[in-house]
Amino acid sequence: MKRSVFVKAGMLCFALVASLSTAGLAGAEPDEMEPQAPSGVQEMTLCPQGWFCVWNKPHFQGNWLGGTVVGTCYTPFPAPAGLNSVSNQTGHTVRLYSQEGCGGIHQDIGTGMGVDPTSIKVRAARIL
Q: pLDDT digits over 95-110, tens only?
């Protein structure tokens, strides 16, 4: 099954995560605040639980597209200018493809993992 419909929810999730994060910091003293996550880890967690997210730029920057349905070929992703960054929060392995229609060279991303940057320009993806 191919799907060409993606959910562009990156900014909505960013706003939600940002508002939840700042709500917990209200009134906290500097020495009471949690230590900051290493660069890239916070950005990777902007991908909602149960989703895989592919950003159109490295370092989890730009807009993201993704999906949740196992076995579906998500295609085509817009041609990126460079390499992508990816977060997999699905609970399954996600296979990234270099060609539309889930073909060509592929790269597998384990559940709970993020890759920045990918080794291929992502044109399609499938949750295995």
A: 999 999 999 999 999 9
Q: What is the CATH number of the domain that holds 42?
A: 2.60.20.10
Its pTM stands at 0.67
Q: Domain count of the chain?
A: 1
Per residue in 66-94, is it b (16+ CB within 10 Å) or e — as a string?
Answer: bbeeeeebbbbbeebeebbbbbbbbebeb
Please say whether the beta carbons of 99 and 124 come within 8 A.
yes
